[in-house]
């Protein structure tokens, strides 16, 4: 049941991601699903409250109402999780202007801080909240996260007016299907007109059918207008998708289109290529999460048959095996700071570029070492068990160990559970490398219009890793039982958990080799980051500014009379759906309406912020100030 619930929590993000990318946007999706999540916590609290009838009495079996309210609560929580997980980290990263070098560096630190905050919350939940549930009341223990979630929603809403809001676009899934379908359909049809070039570029950058258009209010250092903004660079991968391109611009700026074929612009096709390039990384990341799952499964089973007594003065406390996960959580919180402040800057100074895939690969190596450490601990534990509870014949070989005829007695060897600490710390260190790198990778390398769906794809690898863990456990149990000595019996003292850990280590090493091959051949998304500012752009009249609407990234028509300097003499075309946008540093424009002229003039920096084609809707205007 735990595995099913965990898998559901990492599968439902596909639903939340599609809704965010194509319907509500990330902010509204997070808000809506946070409310659903809060409802789930309320139902879970209700299920543990005796007056509600969800708790069976002493000696009574749970009723249908008990099961109904419990499973309903878990289902609602899983659904709410699906709208939060893929969007919250992406929404945070949306707040950074990637045209600035400093913002790009701060975005990397944001993902580290984001993961540290998750583990800080986990630490509080696994210590203080668990203590309340165990020693005070389950109802109060469930109510505390409910109050915390309500407070989090209020804080999230408080910043609504200062967030950068990226509007939704068409369904990313439909976009991928349509582009692939158009490429296959066009390939089968003989083209009688001029075919589009394999790469359509200007300064090596795709212009999505809008090359040569000047950006309103943009000036270079020498006063000339240019449209140099961060845009996707043409890639050489998945060339067969280029058959879906039916309109483009030549190097002379002439618009070309093939009539009679369903197709897309180079930018739209390039975005689908990015999605397909993510799939090998996704597939080669699944086994890592299978290894990670062992921390909540086999590590706990191993700890249950170790010495868990902890002396506190004159008393002795039995430590729950699952509480060893605290070592994992604390190590993550500490090691993230070490990585972000010391390790990563240090290796950069030494000339080593820690790319996202390199970081993930090193984490997989560390995960394999964690399995090796667990195997060593289990081998030591088994040997101690043989010496303490078995007759000498059990020492003749592993196959004889645990045979009832040889006289093995049940018992727990005198091996402290704290010997598990290194393997928990190693898993935590691997998370600092692989898990954070995966979050950043699936955000950074995804098309702008599909970032929530891409984050959900990364979370799906976690769900599949959990399910794969269950499948591997089942296969190992069946195969080893057929071989005559089961590795994973109910009583692990009679099994070979150490060999299971070694098998997982070997699989992780093989998977890491495959991941390295994928990483070597992976072509990173190339984005040309250039930040330019208008040297003299008059501030918009006060009555044209919105002080209540959230900041939405939209194309902006800047009337000529608001621009001074050489740019004023340049033609001012209306912005198209793929044209870069200008966003006021302080207050965004939400509409341009007729108004009386104003004698007030002021200089205001205009930042250049670019997203992909479908993130820049045409702004309807009814005129311009005069």
Automatic annotation (TrEMBL):
The chain crosses the membrane at residues 30-52, 64-84, 110-132, 138-158, 274-292, 312-339, 360-377, 424-443, 455-479, 499-520. Gene3D superfamilies: MFS general substrate transporter like domains. It comes from the Eukaryota. GO terms for molecular function: transmembrane transporter activity. It is a multi-pass membrane protein. It is found in: Membrane. Keywords: Membrane, Transmembrane, Transmembrane helix, Transport. InterPro entries: MFS_trans_sf, POT_fam, PTR2_symporter_CS. Residues 573-626 are annotated as: Disordered. Residues 573-582 have a biased composition (Low complexity). GO terms for cellular component: membrane. GO terms for biological process: oligopeptide transport. Residues 597-607 have a biased composition (Acidic residues). Belongs to the major facilitator superfamily. Proton-dependent oligopeptide transporter (POT/PTR) (TC 2.A.17) family. This is Major facilitator superfamily (MFS) profile domain-containing protein. It comes from Chlamydomonas euryale.
């Amino acid at each position: 049941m735990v595995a099913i619930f965990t898998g559901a929590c990492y599968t439902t993000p596909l639903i939340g991601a599609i809704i965010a990318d194509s319907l509500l946007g990330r902010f509204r999706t997070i808000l809506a699903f946070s409310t659903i999540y809060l409802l789930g916590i309320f139902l879970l609290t209700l299920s543990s409250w005796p007056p509600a009838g969800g708790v069976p009495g002493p000696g009574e079996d749970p009723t249908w109402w008990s099961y109904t309210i419990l499973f309903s609560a878990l289902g609602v929580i899983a659904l709410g999780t699906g709208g939060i997980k893929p969007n919250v980290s992406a929404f945070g990263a949306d707040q950074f202007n990637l045209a600035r070098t400093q913002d790009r560096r701060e975005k990397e630190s944001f993902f580290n801080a984001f993961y540290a905050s998750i583990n800080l919350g986990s630490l509080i939940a696994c210590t203080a909240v668990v203590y309340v549930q165990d020693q005070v009341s389950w109802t109060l223990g469930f109510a505390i996260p409910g109050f915390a979630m309500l407070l989090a929603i209020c804080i999230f809403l408080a910043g609504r007016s200062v967030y950068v809001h990226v509007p939704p676009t068409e369904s990313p899934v439909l976009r991928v299907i349509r582009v692939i379908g158009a490429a296959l359909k066009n390939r089968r049809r003989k083209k009688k007109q001029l075919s589009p070039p394999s790469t359509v570029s200007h300064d090596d950058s795709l212009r999505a059918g809008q090359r040569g258009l000047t950006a309103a209010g943009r000036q270079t250092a020498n006063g000339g207008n240019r449209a140099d903004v961060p845009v996707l660079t043409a890639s050489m991968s998945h060339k067969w998708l280029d058959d879906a391109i039916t309109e483009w611009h030549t190097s002379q700026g002439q618009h070309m289109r093939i009539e009679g074929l369903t197709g897309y612009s180079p930018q739209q096709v390039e975005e689908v290529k990015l999605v397909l390039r993510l799939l090998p990384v996704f597939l080669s990341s699944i086994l890592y999460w299978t290894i990670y799952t062992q921390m909540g499964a086999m590590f706990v089973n191993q700890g249950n048959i170790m010495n868990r007594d902890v002396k506190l003065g004159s008393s002795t406390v039995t430590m729950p095996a699952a509480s060893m996960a605290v070592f994992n959580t604390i190590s993550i919180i500490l090691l993230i700071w070490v990585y972000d402040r010391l390790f990563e800057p240090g290796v950069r100074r030494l000339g080593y570029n820690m790319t996202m895939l390199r970081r993930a690969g090193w984490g997989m190596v560390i995960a394999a070492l964690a399995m090796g450490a667990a195997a060593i601990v289990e081998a030591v534990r088994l040997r101690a068990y043989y010496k303490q509870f078995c007759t000498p014949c059990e020492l003749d070989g592993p196959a004889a160990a645990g045979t009832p005829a040889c006289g093995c007695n049940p018992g727990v060897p005198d091996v402290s559970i704290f010997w598990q600490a290194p393997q928990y710390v190693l898993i935590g260190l691997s998370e600092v490398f692989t898990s954070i790198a995966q979050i950043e990778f699936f955000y950074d390398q995804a098309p702008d219009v599909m970032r929530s769906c891409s984050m959900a794809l990364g979370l799906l690898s976690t769900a599949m890793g959990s399910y794969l863990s269950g499948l591997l456990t089942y296969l190992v149990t069946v195969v080893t039982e057929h071989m005559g000595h089961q590795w994973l019996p109910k009583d692990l003292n009679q099994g070979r958990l150490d060999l299971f850990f070694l098998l997982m280590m070997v699989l992780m090493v093989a998977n890491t080799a495959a991941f390295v091959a994928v990483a070597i051949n992976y072509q990173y998304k190339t984005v040309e980051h250039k930040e330019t500012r208008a040297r003299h752009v008059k501030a918009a009249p006060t009555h044209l500014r919105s002080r209540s609407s959230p900041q939405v990234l939209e194309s902006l028509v800047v009337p000529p009379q608001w621009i001074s300097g050489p740019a004023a003499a340049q033609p001012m075309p209306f912005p198209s759906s793929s044209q870069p946008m200008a966003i006021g540093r302080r207050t965004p424009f939400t509409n341009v309406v007729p108004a009386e002229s104003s004698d007030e003039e002021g200089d205001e920096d205009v930042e250049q912020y670019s997203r992909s084609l479908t993130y820049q809707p045409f702004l309807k205007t009814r005129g311009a100030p005069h």
